[in-house]
Amino acid sequence: LDPERSRRRVLLKLSGEVFGGGSVGVDPATVRGIAEQIAAVRGQVEVCVVIGGGNFFRGAELSKAGMDRARADYMGMLGTVMNCLALQDFLEQSGQPTRVQTAITMGQVAESYIPLRAVRHMEKGRVVVFGAGAGMPYFSTDTVCAQRALEVGADMILMGKSGVDGVYTADPKADPQAERLEHLSYSDALLRNIRVMDQTAMTMCNDNDLSMRVFGMEGEGNVTRALLGEELGTLVTP
Ligand code: UDP
Questions:
Q1: Which domains does the chain have, with CATH numbers?
Q2: Below-70 pLDDT ranges, the chain
């Protein structure tokens, strides 16, 4: 924790798939549940959020189906913005003031990404939701997590997963012997090809001394518990 700061500051990563509740689009009941869990830590933890866009489009998949990769990636980025707006809406309904900042300028919809302003929002108790990825094709929302967390001085990344509650020695769905790891280093994950997040993102976290907790979003109150610093899932450190 930064000694200048009274509260912990975390970046929460949510997968787009969770927002879709298993299909394309946004499942309002699911997003409401997540928003309520974030709003529950109001005033106790400074929170910024990055949401994926897998419930709408993944650039790599569209590109495989014949689209130009960069254009497909822009579609992916625009999808993340819809998730951000949905989360903002339910956070505000839960009494949690929220600002969305996007890496692609769209003034009617959200603020532009301005790091110092994002920090100020968090200091004032607002949640900041970062949308449109890095604004650059060929990047992932994982990489954006690492970059944003570093730039706004987050103490750690909290990576919420669906269908799995941490990092395992093997794929727990395929291998019954798979065991959940309490702790893992980025270099181990890279060496053993464990895809906690993509390699660019892991390298960035490793090189800049940023830790991450990988936890399952399904358990009752898990998002709140992770935000409050409970030791759920797996801790990944440099
Ligand atoms: N994307 C991009 N640049 C970025 C972030 C995202 O091009 O900086 C695009 C990319 O096409 C990606 C899509 O947005 O497939 C959705 O993001 P991601 O796949 O990371 O979402 P998740 O799998 O976490 O839901």
A1: 8-237 (3.40.1160.10)
A2: 1-3
